[in-house]
């Protein structure tokens, strides 16, 4: 059996982690198993499911520069003690350099860097991350990304054009296919039967730009008094966003739905999906929303590769709220046929059943180049 070690923050219910679980559930686990190198100490919502499927979660000392020697020893010992791990696949953006460099030193011949974003957040590690971004290609053997723009940002245009590979953020399309009965039930449960429901799914952090979203919605609510905003997710900025919703006078029209294991019912209840992100690679939630047949309004910082449906548009973050509201309210058109969304996602190559089979064969072939008995 081949084991693939995925380096992640932790297996919380977020975009990258959800994408990995989508693929993991579809693997032939008699041939391939996923393990996870968690670089944050907090348990993740997916940990129990991972273990139930035969995967393992290893908690590292953390990606703090002060712990770097200890981290290197931890990863080296982990790989030496588990020789069935033949591939290390890092999803930590620039900081994935540490896991990949440690894997290289431990003799792992297949080391995948996976880019998921088009920008590095300016935090206290910003300078370190810029350095790691420059070193990342030298630690990896393979250069993957969720999309073209993220790949070019992390590896450079020349390297990306020569050897980049896109692994699509595929989803279980049938799970999100539009279901009128689910829509009616969800809207009744939350008293939204006669409302125009604008939805968003994402962690409350600077990347997702909830502050601008609340301002856009406040303007939309003036044009459409029946408008309601549903925010799914949690995060460090949630308390501040609750305060802002209150100060804008829209708290009574905003549903802070929290984190949940299954958001498919909420997609059915929505009338429009809005993602005004400051930066993105290729957001899983954008694929899910389009599979549910939703009209989508993305910022222009979301790659154009995310636009699968004619009902999805990109609007400049520099545009005023009037323009955003105009685009959002166009979703009230009654002629929108949401039943076609799932088929659109399939045709675009985002069906997890198909893409997982491709990934499985790719992993097996990659491992075989390093170890001839890896396909057994």
Q: Shape from CA axes?
A: globular
- Measured as a percent range, the helix fraction is 40-55%
Radius of gyration: 21 Å
User: Approximately how much beta-strand content do the residues carry?
Assistant: 15-25%
Helix and strand composition category: alpha/beta
Biggest sheet features: 7 strands, parallel
Q: Kindly report the spatial arrangement of strands forming the biggest sheet.
A: 3-2-1-4-5-6-7
Strand and helix order: EHEHEHEHEHEHHEHHEHEHEHEHEEHHH
**Average of pLDDT:** 92
CATH-scheme architecture of the largest domain: 3-Layer(aba) Sandwich
User: What fold name stands as the CATH topology of the largest domain?
Assistant: Rossmann fold
Question: CATH H level of the largest domain: which superfamily?
Answer: Glycogen Phosphorylase B
Total helices: the number is: 16
């Amino acid at each position: 059996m081949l084991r693939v070690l995925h380096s992640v923050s932790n297996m919380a219910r977020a975009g990258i982690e959800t994408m990995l679980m989508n693929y993991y559930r579809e693997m032939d686990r008699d041939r391939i198993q996923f393990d996870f190198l968690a670089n944050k100490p907090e348990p993740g919502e997916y940990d129990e499911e991972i273990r139930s499927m035969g995967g393992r979660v290893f908690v590292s000392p953390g990606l703090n520069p002060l712990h770097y020697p200890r981290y290197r020893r931890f990863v080296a010992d982990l790989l030496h003690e588990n020789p069935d791990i033949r591939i290390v696949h890092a999803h930590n953006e620039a900081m994935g350099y540490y896991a990949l460099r440690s894997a290289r030193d431990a003799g792992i011949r297949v080391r995948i860097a996976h880019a998921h974003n088009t920008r590095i957040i300016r935090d206290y590690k910003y300078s370190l991350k810029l350095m790691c971004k420059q070193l990342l290609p030298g630690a990896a053997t393979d250069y993957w990304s969720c999309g073209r723009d993220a790949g070019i940002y992390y590896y450079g245009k020349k390297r990306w054009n020569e050897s980049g590979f896109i692994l699509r953020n595929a989803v279980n399309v049938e799970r999100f296919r539009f279901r009128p009965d689910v829509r009616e039930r969800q809207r009744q449960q939350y008293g939204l039967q006669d409302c125009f429901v604008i939805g968003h799914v994402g962690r409350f952090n600077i990347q997702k730009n909830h502050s601008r979203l609340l301002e856009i919605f406040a303007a939309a609510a003036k044009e459409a008094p029946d408008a309601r905003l549903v925010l799914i997710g949690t995060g460090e900025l949630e308390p501040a966003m609750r305060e802002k919703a209150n100060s804008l006078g829209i708290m009574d029209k905003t549903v802070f739905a929290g984190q949940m294991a299954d958001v498919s019912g909420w997609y059915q209840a929505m009338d429009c999906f809005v993602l005004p992100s400051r930066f993105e690679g290729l957001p899983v939630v954008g694929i899910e929303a389009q599979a549910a047949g939703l009209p989508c309004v993305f910022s222009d910082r979301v790659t154009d590769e995310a636009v699968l449906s004619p009902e999805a548009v990109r609007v400049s973050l520099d545009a005023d709220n009037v323009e955003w509201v105009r685009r959002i309210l166009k979703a009230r058109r009654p002629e929108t046929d949401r039943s076609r969304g799932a088929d659109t996602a399939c045709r675009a190559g985002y069906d997890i059943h198909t893409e997982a089979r491709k990934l499985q064969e790719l992993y097996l072939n990659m491992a075989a180049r390093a170890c001839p008995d890896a396909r057994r």
